[in-house]
Amino acid sequence: MSVEDLENFNLNAKRKELINRYAPKLGFDQDAIDVFFDIISTIDTILEKKDIRTKAREWDHIGVKVEDGKVILPKDFEEIVYEIIRDNQLYSFFLPEDLGGMGFGNLFQGPISEVIATYDISLQIMIMISLSVIEALVQYYKPNFEPILQEFAEGKRLGYVAFSEPGAGSNLEAVKSTSELVGDEYVLNGTKVWISNGGYANTGLFLAQNIVNGKREGTNVFLVTDLDGITPLRVEEKSGLHVSPTAQLLFENVTVPKENVIAEVGDGYRKVLERLMGMRVGVSFQGIAAAKRLFVQALDYAKTREQFKRPIIQFPVIEKKLTEMMRTIPRMEEYGYRAGYTLDRYNKGWVPVDVGAGGKEGPEKQAASMVPGAVRGGLAHHFVSSSKIYTSEVVNQMAYDATQIFGGNGFVAEYEVNKVMRDVRVLAIYEGTSEIHNQILHKTEKAVEMIPNFERLYQTFDGSTVYERILFERFPGLDKII
Ligand SMILES: Cc1cc2nc3c(=O)[nH]c(=O)nc-3n(C[C@H](O)[C@H](O)[C@H](O)COP(=O)(O)OP(=O)(O)OC[C@H]3O[C@@H](n4cnc5c(N)ncnc54)[C@H](O)[C@@H]3O)c2cc1C
Q1: Which structural domains are found in the chain, ordered by start?
Q2: Pairing state between β 159-162 and 261-262
């Protein structure tokens, strides 16, 4: 690979190719695809014009605080959040068509997340977590959710997901929060930790034990539509994502109508987790965004920084790092788009991979009817977990290489590469740690085996990259599965 190849690498080429590959298979026509590309370009233009990348470095220093029970964000951060969601009615595209939306799902959510995250991952979190709440309301739709969905579409609502607790992170079924039916309302109590957008956003999902006559009878997930009874106790001081509030929240006798139960009483956790995987796709695209930023910055720096009377890019060991990044980025995108696409298929009730050549009709329809529901669910999990573990692990290795190329400057806050390095560390931790996704992949292996003509993505790539070799060293056997 020459320096010219590195310079000519088109960071956005794959987006077009993959959207055109997958969107028609989900039933989107050219008009819908054009709308999607318009949204991407509008958001990109707004963020570029407002110089959000420079502002993001300022926000990184300012951070977030809690004052008098209120989460305080930098003013211009708030302004840009509302500009994106209100002026562009961003969430409206994700409503189903019969509610006036365009039925966009995770295939489109991913690259929109990516564009925002190339400016700032904290900004992407603040804007895009709402889509998890919207996804839950759409997937487990009830008529009383409609006004809330409309308010999301109008930009009057921002979302959060309050699942984790001090003693329940990977094992969420162990939450201690409680929910008890009193008359026509549920009363919610508990302490939640690490809640992104917590205490600031006004519309959330809350996970709790279902208490009946003093006994636990499964778990419930609720839609909570205002902040009454919810106190942000503090926001965490983190090594990255400084302007994304990660809050500890106290829920004290919060009441919600019994219609606000999502999915089924007593089976909330399983039901919601079965479909609420969009955030994992979003995290994959945070990784893709970060990888692109790391590559661009490291390439620029390597071309301009001179040591021993020549640009450091001329040292083969430096060029090799950049080449490996360039080879890996399109692979990350292959995983990310495949995850978004298969999850959307699953949520539409279709078998989540192409079987045979038939599209929605023909052989595929026949095959779909032969694939049991549990296998379909397994497949959706398999693709989402492949994407999450691959993208989040490799981007962390890339961050290591990119900061290395910057030498001492990689370790100082002045350079964006340093911020990206700190921001991406958590990608392998939240939305299920890599260890948990590795487990899911092994558990769902059987589902994949049942699909004829199933192609493992990794085996379609030309050779392995250094980042993949590190990943497979860490998680032995994964190369045979993803
Ligand atoms: C910045 C940030 C934002 C977050 N946002 C949210 C949010 O909006 N909403 C929300 O509900 N939560 C949120 N979280 C919580 C996040 O999802 C959890 O931190 C994550 O699920 C891991 O849980 P834990 O931290 O308790 O780790 P633990 O579960 O205690 O895990 C510790 C270690 O043990 C490993 N481990 C655990 N179980 C197993 C196992 N069975 N096999 C092998 N290894 C295992 C883990 O992989 C990890 O390496 C956020 C966290 C952070 C840091």
Answers
A1: 20-158 (1.10.540.10), 162-265 (2.40.110.10), 277-480 (1.20.140.10)
A2: unpaired
Specify the DSSP element, H or E, that contains 264: none
> Would you give the DSSP letter of residue 165?
B
Pocket test for ligand 1, best of 124, 130, 164 (most atoms within 8 A of CB): 164
For the chain, what percent of residues have pLDDT higher than 70?
A: 96
Q: Distance from the CA of 402 to the center of ligand 1, in angstroms?
A: 26
Q: 26 with 36: CB under 8 angstroms? A: no
In the predicted model, is pLDDT for residue 211 greater than 70?
A: yes
Ligand 1 pocket: which of 224, 241, 430, 478 to mutate (most atoms <8 Å of CB)? 430
Residue 265 backbone phi and psi in degrees, to 5: -65, 130
More confidently predicted of 355 and 380: 380
Question: For helices 373-405 and 278-304, what crossing angle results, to 10°?
Answer: 20
Residue 262: helix, strand or coil by DSSP? strand
Q: Which residue has the higher pLDDT, 378 or 384?
A: 384
Angstrom CA distances, 425 to 217, 322, 418, 419, stand at 37, 20, 11, 10
Which atom from ligand 1 is nearest to the alpha carbon of 170? 29
Integer Cα distance of 477 and 187 in angstroms: 46
User: What is the distance in A from the centroid of ligand 1 to the CA of 184?
Assistant: 34
